[in-house]
């Protein structure tokens, strides 16, 4: 990506709390109008990074630019960003209308114009006629909409969302995900969304930055992150992944000849990996890309033989754990239940064979 | 023995417990339990406050007859309280002095409470205890301590004299309204700090961040979020100081001098040297009614102000 389409440019940002490094040399670009997620386990620095964008935390070094403007000297109340807080931070002493109109003070609008804008935004977040309600009369989902409306009414260049769906129950969360996406499209504002929920990030985002230990591991689209994670950490964080240890035998013409445990020698495309001869690495495959056979498959395609350890029935699909000799971990295999006979022949201990399409197996970066 | 098969099916030890009708009602009714818990306090309130108040109220309609009371109900005391300007003047002065003392106390204590609530992260309780430390000595002792500080040959005057800044002791320091205000403000500070601290401490930090995020700098944020949300503490502090200081008679008696005497001194005189208990009772009732009025007006004004600021 060139820096011209960087609406938010984060350049070599570091943050220390005493000797603890919360953010370690993060650089990335966020495009205009993008739904961008920061994904990671708690304590990975995602919220710290978001609060740096808002201006509540200052970077120990590095610079953040929003729409070309360096932000390090700009106090939070003058930044062109607004935030939806994790607990929504609805002012308890104000009703819904005054909460939403809170940020309009600086615009010095007449009262009628203010009310008009509030009614408009209440319609947008589907809370028409709620202006006179007090904060404590709202449900969790309604509070969230008020928080959204309060931030959106100011038409910020960037909307920051700090795990806004965390406090909602599953059904409401899914409903709000759809609405967030719709809202983001209709207002065209850049959203930066913090979450620890990978499914939520995959559903909502145009692009995701996966974070761990204060570092950004990979910035990519949801499908690229799932299909082609660049490291074991990312592959592990997004969905389930099977790994096989491997060693690079040789590299030629964009292909790697690998010595893979339990599989033997195999050629795989190198992709963008910086691997060279002798490096230790991993190959990976998703559970749903493996086909389970009761009988030894024909042909000379690579196959693994193992024993079925455990079967978990999950309704629309089943999960199998297969122990393969020569592998440290058991293999996860996932299959739609229309392809297997429920219950029949799934006894643990029976021998099974695993096969996959050629492009399902791919090589990760250096370990 | 028709019952025999029935009782046989039931284990003999499980006997149904039959709570008394009262106990059952007690368990079901939340309000009854509430009143039971309140009753010791209510009893004390009734005996210790309501009864004396009724006596005071009754007495205020009597008149003095030498060393006896004439118990014929009459408004004479109230008429006198309204017609003789000295009572009105003392009442006005009391409100003025204690009003200033209240405002000064709340204004001085607010930053302290704010500091402990927002900027002290460890040992908060220690800070609170330290702030209330002066109140571990007796009220009278503290009044005398101020006498030592403010007196003609007191700490301030002798310091200023020795530095050559003044030629004669400052007279307005002691035996004046200033002395009363300073002493009252200091004496009641703990009663302001504690409610202010509690209300500030309760404020969710994310609300302050939200206000900042929505474009308010520190000053606006304080006016639109911190102050309104700490208003319960401010109101509690104002009442806790204003009400008792208006009727205070120790500080004005010891430090007030001729200009500093307040309505409390006058009431005390009626029950003491003047020996006109009905008049004292009437003045007490008048004072109470005025305090109630002022308090109500204050409540209404703060509520209106809060709505305006929002």
TrEMBL record, chain A:
Family matches, as InterPro entries: AAA+_ATPase, ABC_SmlMolc_Importer, ABC_transporter-like_ATP-bd, ABC_transporter-like_CS, Mo/tungstate-bd_C_term_dom, NA-bd_OB-fold, P-loop_NTPase, PotA-like
All residue ranges annotated as the ABC transporter domain in the record: 8-238
Q: What EC number(s) are associated with this protein in UniProt?
A: 7.6.2.11
What does the entry list under GO cellular component? ATP-binding cassette (ABC) transporter complex
Q: Pfam families under this entry?
A: ABC_tran, TOBE_2
Record's PROSITE patterns?
A: ABC_TRANSPORTER_1, ABC_TRANSPORTER_2
Gene3D superfamilies in UniProt: 2.40.50.100, Nucleic acid-binding proteins (2.40.50.140), P-loop containing nucleotide triphosphate hydrolases (3.40.50.300)
Write the record's keywords in alphabetical order, separated by commas: ATP-binding, Cell membrane, Membrane, Nucleotide-binding, Translocase, Transport
Q: Which SMART domains match?
A: AAA
Extract one GO molecular function annotation from the record: ATP binding
As its record notes, the protein acts as a catalyst of:
ATP + H2O + polyamine-[polyamine-binding protein]Side 1 = ADP + phosphate + polyamineSide 2 + [polyamine-binding protein]Side 1
Q: Which SUPFAM superfamilies match?
A: MOP-like, P-loop containing nucleoside triphosphate hydrolases
One Gene Ontology BP term is: putrescine transport
Q: What does this protein do?
A: Part of the ABC transporter complex PotABCD involved in spermidine/putrescine import. Responsible for energy coupling to the transport system.
Q: How does it assemble?
A: The complex is composed of two ATP-binding proteins (PotA), two transmembrane proteins (PotB and PotC) and a solute-binding protein (PotD).
What family does this chain come from, according to its entry? Belongs to the ABC transporter superfamily. Spermidine/putrescine importer (TC 3.A.1.11.1) family.
- Fetch the NCBIfam families from UniProt: potA (TIGR01187)
- For this entry, the protein name equals Spermidine/putrescine import ATP-binding protein PotA
Automatic annotation (TrEMBL), chain B:
Ranges of residues in domain ABC transmembrane type-1: 91-298
> Could you tell me which CDD domains the record lists for this protein?
TM_PBP2
Kindly state a single biological-process term from the GO annotations of this entry.
Answer: transmembrane transport
Residue stretches spanning the membrane = 42-62, 95-118, 125-152, 172-200, 221-243, 279-301
Write down the membrane topology: Multi-pass membrane protein
Give its localization: Cell membrane
Can you quote a single GO CC term?
Answer: plasma membrane
Keyword entries, A-Z? Cell membrane, Membrane, Transmembrane, Transmembrane helix, Transport
Source domain of life: Bacteria
Keyword Transferase found = no
Q: Which family does it belong to?
A: Belongs to the binding-protein-dependent transport system permease family. CysTW subfamily.
Q: What name has this protein been given in UniProt?
A: ABC transporter permease
Species annotation:
Pelagibius litoralis
Traced from the root, the source organism's taxonomic lineage reads:
Bacteria, Pseudomonadati, Pseudomonadota, Alphaproteobacteria, Rhodospirillales
């Amino acid at each position: 990506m060139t820096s011209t389409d960087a609406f938010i440019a984060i350049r070599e940002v570091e943050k220390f709390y005493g000797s603890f490094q919360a953010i370690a040399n993060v650089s990335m670009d966020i495009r205009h109008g993008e739904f961008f997620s920061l994904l990671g386990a708690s304590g990975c620095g995602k919220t710290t990074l978001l609060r740096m964008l808002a201006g509540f935390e200052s970077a120990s070094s590095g610079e953040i630019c929003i729409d070309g403007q360096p932000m390090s000297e700009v106090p939070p109340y003058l930044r062109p960003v607004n935030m939806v807080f994790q607990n929504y931070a609805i002012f308890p002493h104000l009703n819904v209308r005054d909460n939403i109109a809170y940020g309009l003070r600086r615009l010095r609008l007449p009262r009628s114009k203010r009310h008009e804008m509030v009614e408009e935004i209440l319609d947008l977040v589907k809370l028409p006629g709620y202006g006179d309600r007090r904060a404590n009369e709202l449900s969790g989902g309604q509070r969230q909409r008020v928080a959204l409306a309060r931030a959106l009414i100011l038409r910020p260049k960037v909307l920051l969302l700090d795990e806004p769906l965390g406090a909602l129950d599953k059904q409401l969360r899914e409903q709000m995900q759809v609405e967030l996406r719709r809202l983001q499209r209709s207002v065209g504002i850049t959203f930066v969304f913090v979450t620890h929920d990978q499914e939520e990030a995959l559903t909502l985002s145009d692009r995701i930055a996966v974070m761990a230990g204060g570092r950004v591991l990979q910035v990519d689209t949801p499908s690229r992150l799932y299909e082609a994670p660049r490291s074991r950490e990312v592959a592990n964080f997004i969905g389930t992944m099977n790994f096989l240890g491997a060693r690079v035998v040789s590299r030629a013409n964009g292909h790697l000849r690998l010595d893979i445990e339990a599989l033997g020698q195999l050629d795989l495309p190198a992709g963008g990996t910086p691997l060279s001869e002798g490096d230790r690495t991993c190959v990976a495959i998703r559970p749903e890309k493996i086909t389970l056979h009761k009988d030894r498959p024909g042909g000379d395609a690579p196959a693994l033989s193992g024993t079925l350890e455990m079967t978990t029935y999950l309704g629309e699909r089943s999960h199998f754990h297969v122990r393969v000799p020569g592998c440290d971990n058991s293999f996860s295999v996932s299959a739609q239940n229309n392809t297997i006979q429920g219950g029949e022949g799934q006894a643990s201990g029976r021998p099974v064979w695993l096969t996959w399409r050629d492009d399902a197996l791919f090589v990760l970066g250096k370990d | 023995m028709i019952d025999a098969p029935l009782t046989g099916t039931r284990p003999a030890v499980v006997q149904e417990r039959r709570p008394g009708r009262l106990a059952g009602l007690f368990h079901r009714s939340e309000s009854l339990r509430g009143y039971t818990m309140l009753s010791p306090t209510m009893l004390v309130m009734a005996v210790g406050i309501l009864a004396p108040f009724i006596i005071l109220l009754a007495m205020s309609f009597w008149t003095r007859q030498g060393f006896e009371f004439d118990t014929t109900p009459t408004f004479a005391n109230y008429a006198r309280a309204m017609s003789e300007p000295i009572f009105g003047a003392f009442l006005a002065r009391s409100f003025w002095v204690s009003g200033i003392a209240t405002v000064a106390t709340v204004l001085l204590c607010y930053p302290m409470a704010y500091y402990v609530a927002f900027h002290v992260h460890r040992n908060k309780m220690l800070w609170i205890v330290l702030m209330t430390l002066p109140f571990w000595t007796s009220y009278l002792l503290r009044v005398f301590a101020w006498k030592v500080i403010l007196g003609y040959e007191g700490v301030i005057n002798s310091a200023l004299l020795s530095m050559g800044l003044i030629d004669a002791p400052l007279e307005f320091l002691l035996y004046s309204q200033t002395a009363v205000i300073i002493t009252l403000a200091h004496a009641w500070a703990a009663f302001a700090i504690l409610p202010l601290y509690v209300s500030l401490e309760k404020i969710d930090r994310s609300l302050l961040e939200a206000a900042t995020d929505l474009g308010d700098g520190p000053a606006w944020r304080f006016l639109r979020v911190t102050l309104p949300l700490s208003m319960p503490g401010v109101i509690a502090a104002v009442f806790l100081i204003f009400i008792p200081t208006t009727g205070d008679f120790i500080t004005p008696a010891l430090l007030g001098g001729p200009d500093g005497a307040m309505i409390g001194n006058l009431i005390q005189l009626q029950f003491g040297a003047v020996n006109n208990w009905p008049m004292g009772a009437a003045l007490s009732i008048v004072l109470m009614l005025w305090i109630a009025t002022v308090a109500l007006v204050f409540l209404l004004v703060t509520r209106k102000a809060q709505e305006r600021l929002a």
